[in-house]
Amino acid sequence: MKSTLLLERISKIYKRISHAAMRAGRDPEDVRLIAVTKTVSAGQIREAIDAGLRIFGENRVQEAQKKVTSDELRLENEEISWHLIGHLQKNKAKFAVQLFDLIHSVDSEDLACEIDRHAQKTGKRQDVLVEVKLSHEGTKHGVSRGGLPGLLRVVEDLKHLNLRGLMTVPPFFDDPKEARPYFRELRELRDRAAAEGFDLPELSMGMSGDFEIAIEEGATMVRIGTAIFGERE
Ligand SMILES: *Cc1c(COP(=O)(O)O)cnc(C)c1O
Question: Model pTM?
Answer without folding.
Answer: 0.96
